[in-house]
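user: Please review this fold.
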Amino acid sequence: MTIILTLLTALTAAANEPAPRHLERVVVDSHRKALLVYGGAIYAPGEPVTFPADSWHWSGGTWRTAPAEPGPGARAGHALVYDRHRKRVVVLGGMRVEGGRETELRDVCSTDEGSRGARSSCGSSPAESSASCRQPGPQPAGPHEAAFDSHRAALVISTWKDDRAVVWEWHGGSWSQKPCVGACPPPRDRFAAAYDERTRKTMLFGGRGPRQPALGDLWGWDGEVWSEWRGTANAPAPRAAAALEAGSGEVYLYGGVTGWGPTNELWRWKDGEWRLLNAAGAMDAERTVAALRARLASKPEDWDAAARLGGVLKYMGRYDEAQPVLERAHQGKPGDHNHLFSLLEVLYQLKKDREAEQVLEAALASGRVASYRRLGTLLSSIGREREAALCTAKAEAGVR
């Protein structure tokens, strides 16, 4: 699918282009043969987070932007699907930050482009309409993700209840829900989803689990049951917040947040095999380490960059290299509980429990850690219950 294959080139071009963003959504408008990037949050160094309301279209080898208004408005973590039957793009839910406050959105908007240009219409989510009082709709626990099953003309949204998958489908003017029977994808959010016309299944990849920072499994939903495709030796690393698109008998996975941070990898799934299409230039772990080292060479007091470098080295199993980097990050920002936890985790991996105990004792005595309760939760997640109890006691004593 030429449109998908040119996505990476477009995103790294020097010409007019959309800024890199997080929790944006990507969809292919097969009628106009264009790729649409909409929404997301922009994190510029040293600047507040912004939520762009414009949309970008990649077609014919160039980007063009559509005006922000009229339209669904700025948002991130929404669902974005293309309705082939009605030839329109549908936006569902998401969130935005206004005046420092986070607002959860539960609207449904559709946009089509006729001879007079783009036209958008928005209304209440089916979950909030008067008719839905008798049949409430899905309430995703996290950013929205949906796919449009063109074979059954159904909008498909995956959710979980009591650790069991429940699929919601919107067609014929009402919601229906189908609890999972048999093999089920484990609970998660920030997963990627797309409908594959060749297999007539809604594909689900990865995401963030309640006990795993990232997942790397691939599932298919045929309208009745789930089935899992077992990974091959060459497969994408576990990741969350990636984009998944399908077309011409192939499924494409772009980007996401991995153990080494954001990536621009572009993978193709075809005939049961994964293939990395941009291996020569993709932001993998080694390139991320090199970029962070370069950043610290020019800005040695960027403690967040140091913490991230230490985290990537930890992810790669290079604990001896990670320790001094994370020590610098903790010394530079002693109140950051995430920096402190990363350092402690590396010390535990290196079997330096006494050194870790001294670091934790000093942090408890200082009273400077931003959230002792959160630090305790993180320590508990790796089985350090005694240390977690000390942090919890500190929090309950009235120190954050």
